[in-house]
Each structure stands twice: as structure tokens, then as C-alpha cells.
Design goal:
globular; Growth Hormone, Chain: A; mainly alpha; about 75% helix; two-stranded antiparallel sheet; about 450 residues; single chain
Length: about 450
């Protein structure tokens, strides 16, 4: 019976999602399986190239700054050009720039190309999230976002392990393998994914698309972006504050590796079953609880004195991460107008990109001047503020199936097969017949 129940749970988890989603999911998994460069970049610059740790930190910051620069631009591209062209441009540019980075020797050239890699690699995120919202029914989106997040972490866990072995053989091989796998993602998008950008309904003819200023004037959504930034600051401490604090406390790098490995293992093991548990629960409560778990999970680190204790605190904030990631992405979709999903997702991605820049500076400053214990107290305070903010902002949330989606769902249901026109290199066109799910959204 347990085996039968397990099979039934697995079948229910993956059933009902359109074929296009699974191709997009596959593209995400392949992309993360090949994410070697971010893992060994610091070692490559310091050990292989002989640069200082300060220079390696500068390159890492420029890589992050590139992601900040591309977040909004990629969101605008996803709404104007379409999701598919944006993905093709982003993934092709990432493949080219990553390969180029492996051949750079001049420090200025390395820094410049790293900035471009950061821009290109981050540019696909708003398009992926917008396309997922387009092709998945509203009631299935939390499950879809959770499966996508699971693929990201599964791919990263495998690539992090493989990166060490590849680096021992050849750093250049790591750059070229990542470039090749990213190019495979672009090919999957080109061959298997039609454009999903919602066409305007007849009654919307003549209306302008959502502009970036509209996003900035959306008070509740910008409040959610601000809260997302606070939560991201807390989660970033797992990779920037925790290793420094453990090192200051006399623990070896291997001890940190053991503690933080719990994060990846739990996400891979629990993401899907936890999603089944929370799928139909109140997102407001879920975000409040996950913010508190994140803040106080890191707050408990102040009392950790052994590797086992650190690992237990990682368990607490990892559970918060498992809940927060799909629920937060689903909330962004619920607050986004259908024709502005790219811009809204771009603004949401910006909050995480900026947090990844600020978190290392914040943690270093607090640890140096006040001590690690105060960093964890600050994390608890920030998590509490975020929880209160979500509780206040999410009152009277729009229905899950947004009114603007329903006519499009009916149109797709009445027209289960539709012909999509795919752009070919050189400006040509190719008709691709795509079978849509019987009840889809966004088409």
C-alpha cells in the first residue's frame, strides 16, 4: 500500500500540466545541470589564474550587477518581443559569453565578460516565469512553480558536485560544458516551445500594453517586491553570512559544507510533498509563516555551537524556502495584469538580484563591527517585519483565476489546436502546429 500511495502521489503531482510546461521544465533542469561556472569561479580566479581574493570578489559583484541590470530589461523584452524570443536571446547570449569567459586572460576583460554573463544568464528568468503563467492553469500554477524550483535545486546539487571533478581536470572544460548545455536549452526552446504571450482580446483592441511606470505605481505589488527583497536578504545569509560566521567560530570549511548540504538534500526530498500539502492553503498565511521560519531559523544560529546544531537551523530555514519560493512566485502572477507579466516578473527578479548584491556587504559589515550574533538577531527582526508586511498587504487578494484569464481560457478550450508562427533565423517564418491543453491559460 505505501508503494501504491507513493505512485498515486507522484502521478497526481505531475498530471494535468501541459506538454509545453514539461519542455520548459526540461530546459530549466538542463540549464542548472550545467551551472558550473558560478560554483568554481572564485577558485578559478585565485588558484588557476593567480588573482587575489579581492579581485575574485569584484568579479563576483560585477556578475551580480549584470543580473540587476538585466532584470527589468528582460521583463520588458518578454512583454514586447515575446517570451520565446527573449529566452532564445538570453540563452544564446549566455552560451556565447560563458564560452568566451573561459578564454579571457586580461583582468579587465574577465571582469567585463563576467558582467555580460550575469546579464545574459539572469535575462531568462522573467520570460520563464511569465511563460509558465501563460501556459499553466491558475489552479495548477503553485504546483508548476514548485516543480520548476525543484528542478533548479536538483540541477544545482548535481552540478555543484560535478564542478569539483571537472575543475580538477580542466577549468576550461567547465566553461565549455556549461556553454554547450545552455545552447541545448536554447535549441529546446526553439524546437519545442511556441510563443505563449497572450494576444489581446477583441475588447482590448487599441489598449496600450502595461508600461514600466504602471508597475512602479502599483502600490501593493511594489510592497510585495519590497518584502521579497527583505526575505531574499535573509535567505542569502546561508551562502554569505553563515560560512563567515562558522569560520570565525573555528569551524572548518568542510563543517560548513556538511551543514549547508542539508539545504539541497531537503529541497530535493521535500519540495514536492510539501507542495502537495500547501497547494490549496491560504497564501497569505503561508508567506507569513515562511517569513517567520526564515527569520527565526537564522536567528537560532546565534545559539548553535556544533555542526549538528548548525544543520538543525538550516533545516528550519530550508523549510521556509520550500514554502516561500513557489507561493511568492504565484503571488506575483496573481497581482500581475495578463499583458504585463514580463515586466512584473522582471521587477520581482530585481528584488532578488539586488539582495544578492547587498547581502554580502551587509553581513560582512555586521559581523566585523558587531559580531555574528547580531547578524542572526537582525535576520530574526527582518523576518518578523516581512511577516507583518505580508499579513497587511495580502488582505482581499484577487481570486486565483483572474478575471482577465477566463476569456482566454475559454478561447483556448474552444480551439484546442492552434497554429503558432515561429520566427526563424534570417527573418523567415515557420508554421508549427501546437496542441494546447483542453483548458489552458494565456494562449
Amino acid at each position: 500500500m505505501p508503494l501504491v500511495a507513493l505512485r498515486r502521489a507522484a502521478r497526481e503531482t505531475v498530471s494535468g500540466l501541459p506538454r509545453e510546461f514539461w519542455w520548459l521544465w526540461t530546459s530549466t533542469l538542463v540549464n542548472r545541470l550545467g551551472a558550473f561556472v558560478a560554483t568554481f569561479m572564485a577558485l578559478y580566479l585565485t588558484l588557476d589564474r593567480g588573482y587575489s581574493a579581492s579581485y575574485a570578489g569584484l568579479v563576483a559583484s560585477l556578475h551580480g550587477l549584470g543580473g540587476v541590470a538585466s532584470s527589468l530589461g528582460a521583463g520588458v523584452m518578454a512583454d514586447r518581443l515575446g517570451r520565446r524570443p527573449t529566452l532564445l536571446i538570453a540563452q544564446s547570449s549566455t552560451a556565447l559569453s560563458v564560452a568566451l569567459l573561459g578564454f579571457m586572460h586580461d583582468p579587465v576583460a574577465i571582469a567585463a565578460v563576467a558582467f555580460v554573463v550575469g546579464m545574459a544568464s539572469n535575462a531568462s528568468r522573467p520570460a520563464v516565469q511569465a511563460m509558465m503563467a501563460d501556459i499553466v492553469r491558475p489552479e495548477d500554477r503553485l504546483r508548476a512553480f514548485s516543480l520548476n524550483y525543484w528542478a533548479i535545486n536538483l540541477g544545482f546539487a548535481v552540478s555543484s558536485t560535478a564542478a569539483g571533478f571537472i575543475a580538477e581536470f580542466s577549468y576550461l572544460a567547465g566553461f565549455l560544458i556549461e556553454a554547450g548545455m545552455t545552447l541545448i536549452c536554447a535549441i529546446v526552446v526553439f524546437v519545442k516551445l511556441p510563443e505563449s504571450k497572450p494576444a489581446p482580446l477583441p475588447e482590448e483592441a487599441g489598449e496600450e500594453d502595461v508600461r514600466l511606470g504602471t508597475v512602479l505605481r502599483d502600490g501593493r505589488f511594489m510592497g510585495v517586491v519590497g518584502l521579497s527583497f527583505l526575505v531574499a536578504l535573509v535567505f542569502q545569509q546561508g551562502s554569505v553570512g553563515l560560512p563567515v560566521a562558522m569560520g570565525r567560530a573555528g569551524f572548518a570549511p568542510a563543517d560548513y559544507g556538511l551543514a549547508i548540504a542539508v539545504n539541497g538534500v531537503l529541497i530535493v526530498a521535500l519540495q514536492i510533498p510539501v507542495t502537495r500539502f500547501i497547494e490549496h492553503r491560504d497564501p497569505r498565511r503561508l508567506l507569513v509563516v515562511s517569513s517567520l521560519l526564515a527569520g527565526y531559523g537564522f536567528g537560532l544560529t546565534a545559539f548553535a555551537g556544533s555542526v549538528g546544531a548548525f544543520a538543525l537551523t538550516v533545516c528550519v530555514w530550508t523549510l521556509a524556502e520550500i514554502v516561500n519560493a513557489p507561493v511568492q512566485t504565484g503571488l506575483v502572477v496573481r497581482l500581475s495584469p495578463v499583458r504585463g507579466r514580463g515586466r512584473y516578473q522582471g521587477m520581482y527578479s530585481l528584488s532578488w538580484a539586488v539582495a544578492s548584491l547587498i547581502a554580502p556587504l551587509m553581513s560582512g559589515l555586521v559581523i566585523d563591527r558587531l559580531g555574528a550574533r547580531w547578524l542572526w538577531v537582525l535576520c530574526a527582526a527582518v523576518g518578523t517585519v516581512a511577516a507583518v508586511g505580508y499579513g497587511a498587504l495580502m488582505r482581499r487578494l484577487p481570486e486565483q483565476a483572474a478575471a482577465a484569464d477566463r476569456p482566454r481560457q475559454k478561447a483556448v478550450a474552444d480551439r484546442p489546436e492552434q497554429e503558432a508562427v515561429a520566427d526563424l533565423p534570417g527573418g523567415g517564418k515557420s508554421e508549427v502546429r501546437v496542441r494546447r491543453p483542453s483548458v489552458g491559460s494565456g494562449g
